[in-house]
């Protein structure tokens, strides 16, 4: 077993991982928003449109917000890992 220390994490890779993790829940949110908005339009119910309409657009803001937030967190980690040491992982190289 070898011990490996992670001192730097790529900012783009963290953004992609955040995107992957949010893809399913935000897709479900968009679908619910679309269905409720169509029901609201067809039934003339403006409350449904007002409540569920933003669910169509807001997932894109979530992706942007959480993606940028995770990139800031990783940038801080990269700075601190150089100074104080990073995450240590045991890797099994025996096969």
Distance between the termini: 11 Å
**Total of helices:** 3
Structural class: mainly alpha
Radius of gyration: 21 Å
**Low-confidence parts:** none
Q: How large a portion of the residues is in β-strands, by DSSP E?
A: 5-15%
The helical percent reads over 70%
- Average pLDDT score: 92
Order of helices and strands: EHHHE
Shape summary = elongated
Largest sheet: 2 strands, antiparallel
Please tally the β strands and state the result: 2
Question: Which descriptors would you attach to this protein?
Answer:
membrane; DUF3566 domain-containing protein; mainly alpha; single chain; two-stranded antiparallel sheet
Could you characterize what this model shows?
The protein contains three helices and two strands; from the N terminus they run βαααβ. Strands 1-2 form a two-stranded antiparallel ribbon. 2% of the residues are buried. The model has no long low-confidence stretch (mean pLDDT 92).
